[in-house]
Design a protein that fits this description.
The chain has two domains: 4-71, no CATH class; 78-170, Alpha-Beta Plaits (2-Layer Sandwich), CATH 3.30.70. The protein contains five helices and four strands. It has helices spanning 4-16, 29-45, 60-71, 112-124, 149-162; strands spanning 98-109, 129-134, 138-148, 168-170. A four-stranded antiparallel beta sheet has the order 2-3-1-4, with helices on one face. Helix 1 packs across helix 3 and helix 2 packs antiparallel against helix 3 (60-71). It is globular, with a radius of gyration of 17 Å. It starts with a helix and ends with a strand.
């Protein structure tokens, strides 16, 4: 919530200047993690939509978190995924101490072709992958869950090698 006023000012400044959305530089990993967690918190606190809000592509409550993720450069575009073509990593394997089942939020892809390629890439490397639609963002990519610290670390490293900027562990999903 502390980012809300700053993001509102940035959004209004862009509108006032007649700016068109442009691709921003890749985001700071820590800022991206915070932005995704803010999105999740807002989404979890939303009630079931009804009335005019039910027909909106991005529910009003999520508009600011979406703008924050976009403006921070936290989305993963096709060009960002170029390293997947040459990434050589061993399959994700269990190892290390046991942990509660934990997934990796790899990031968000913005089109269906990238989604299919990313899911196939992670599956081929032994990291179970799934995607979940996220209003205003695209498809969120999750890996796991993993039951050992070694597998979790390997999956995170694999996501970085694939071109994702800010993968992080989560117990969500």
């Amino acid at each position: 919530m502390r980012h809300l006023p700053a993001l509102a000012i940035l959004a209004l400044a862009g509108c006032a200047a007649g700016a068109t959305p442009a691709r921003v530089a890749r985001g700071d990993a820590a800022a991206c993690v915070q932005a995704f967690q803010w999105y999740d918190t807002v989404k979890a606190s939303m009630s079931t939509p009804s009335g005019p809000d039910d027909r909106m592509a991005i529910p009003p409550a999520l508009q600011m978190p979406v703008a924050g993720i976009q403006s921070l450069g936290c989305l993963t575009f096709s060009d960002d995924l170029a390293p997947m073509a040459t990434a050589t990593r061993p399959p994700v394997a269990s190892g290390g101490p046991a942990i509660p089942p934990t997934s990796i939020h790899a990031g968000v892809v913005t089109n269906m072709a990238d989604e299919a390629n990313v899911l196939a890439f992670f599956e081929a490397h032994g990291a179970g992958a799934r995607s979940i639609g996220a209003a205003g963002l695209g498809r969120r990519i999750y890996l796991g869950p993993f039951a050992t610290q070694g597998a979790l670390d390997q999956a995170r490293d694999l996501a970085v090698a694939a071109g994702f900027a800010a993968p992080y562990p989560t117990r969500r999903f």
